[in-house]
Amino acid sequence: KSLDLIVIDEISMVRADLLDAMDAVLRRFRNRNKPFGGVQLLMIGDLQQLSPVVADGEWNLLGRYYATPFFFGSLALQKTNYITIELKTVFRQSDTKFLDLLNKVRENRADASTLEMLNKRYIPGFIPPKGEGYIRLVTHNRQANEINQAELDALKGNTYTYECDVVGNFPESSFPVERTLKLKVGAQVMFVKNDQNHRYFNGMIGVITQIDSEGFVVKPDNQTLLAEDAVPDEDIEVGRETWENNRYTINEETKMIETQVEGTFSQFPVKLAWAITIHKSQGLTFEKAVIDAHSAFAHGQTYVALSRCKTLEGMVLSSPIPQEAIINDTAVKQYTERQTSRHISGMDIETMQKEYKMNLLDDLFDFSKMEYALNYFLRVLTEHFYKKYSSETDELVLLRNVFEEKVKKVSFMFGNQYRKMIESAEEEQLQERLHKAGAYFSEQLLPLAVYLSKYVFETDNKALKKQFSHALDELREALRMKMQLLKYLSENTFDVSDYVSVRGKMAVGESIEVVKKAKKTKKTKAEKSPKISTVEQTYLLWKDGKTIDEIARLRDLKQNTIYTHLVQLVVSGKISIHKVMSRERIEQISEFLRQRNFAESIPYAELKSELGEDFTYGELRMVRGILLNEEE
């Protein structure tokens, strides 16, 4: 009910039949006479990137109804007068020569000289140097799996196996990561889920630095550190995440959507990532990548792979890219040309803004749903309750007649007035008329609201009672929503953005008093304070006298993560190491490290094993950080 805008990202991958399914649902619950129920759509994406996934068997059926599986083949979308705005600023790449090369591939204009320049990045037998964060992009899952397994096998050290935990109904085809994860220290992994504490995000790459049977620690690769509060040197202690398989049903009594958890899947949110498929790389950015696109088989696949790289120099081709690997769909080409030829001006956008404003007012002053609910309620009263409640029924008939004369007819005439004012930009006059209209229609609807609160209608017939309650609830809800919005209009300037926000809140049951209070709070609220980094949050709790265990519990983080924060705070001088560790432990670790010349090149896992189980990774890192600072 409160939905006004649907934002769809990566629209190139959305199928036409999915959009039409959305249209069917929105028409059912919002407005059956308008595409997508009258809800606005904002679709974002690059049609030259990956295409929708359609199996041959599916297209045998869909092909009878759709000319193309791409989103623009949607039958519902074709009934709308949508506009396309081309975004021209590129943020991932800055080198004009590289951008020109990518655009030629993107637009199917790659000639011999383009391929020659591109294939100069082919380095036969290239083996990515260890620790430089190269990722390999391949066309097929099988290739990625083989490369990842070979790289894992080449690592020294023990392999740790982590089994997933499945409860209830969770189809294997929906598993977000492998059922069985096999990992080692040194394994390159990619996170596949956003962390609630913003330590990692879907697509972040890192290397496992510590591991045991309970879990592991990942050092993020700097090239994928995009989160606002991400800290380049902050290792992440990874725990299991839980995914839910939900089923959504409509409660017959409340008519609200309810979520039922049918099953859960629990596993560490990572996958091996020396290699990933081009399909999985869409939306990601890499400083260094090895690209294997000579076997490209789908529209946009080669372009997506090449455009993941920030620079031409950071790209290595595992094999030359032939002309036939650059695949562009004819339907996309024709659609893009049509959209490009439609020159959208500022005046066009202004016209659409006016139309949207009119649509909002048309909806507000459209009383047809209320009329339907009123007539339905009156029919139930007349057919089943007239003998017992004749005077009450006759009173409602009179109210219905007043509604027809003073609400329905007047609203129709008023519609012509405000449309003319919007067209002629008579804003001041429009606002004055809207204020008066809000007050007028609120006054006319008040007797009906009083009537519904005044009488109680009783029956022992359960089926009739259910029918009556349904009719009464429908009328009350239609009346409540309309009167709240009209009252708001009578007291406030009509602003599209504010009105849409207020309407959404009222649709989910908030009263006008609550909305007004929220608006007032928003206006008087001080400027939003700057976002505090995760390390700073730990520091503030430490200053407040909290222990490491208490901080970990309060922040829902593991103790090792808090130790990582304290290492940075100690090394930076914000916290004295003596506040964290005893002098005796500091001296023991210091002596151990001095004997090994500070052990700069020795991995922490090896050092900790030698130092003993009594000491933590955090203590080891803290002391070494202080000693190295003193040496500098």
Could you please describe the fold and organization of this structure?
The chain has 632 residues and is α/β, with parallel strands linked by helices. It has helices spanning 16-29, 56-62, 96-106, 112-119, 141-154, 278-281, 301-307, 330-341, 346-364, 368-384, 390-423, 427-454, 462-491, 496-507, 512-524, 534-543, 548-555, 559-571, 583-594, 604-611, 617-631, and strands at residues 5-8, 40-43, 135-138, 160-163, 165-168, 180-183, 188-191, 205-212, 215-220, 236-238, 241-250, 257-267, 270-272, 275-277, 289-291, 315-317. The strands form five sheets. Strands 10-9-8-7-13 form a five-stranded antiparallel sheet. The longest helix has 34 residues, at 390-423. It starts with a strand and ends with a helix.
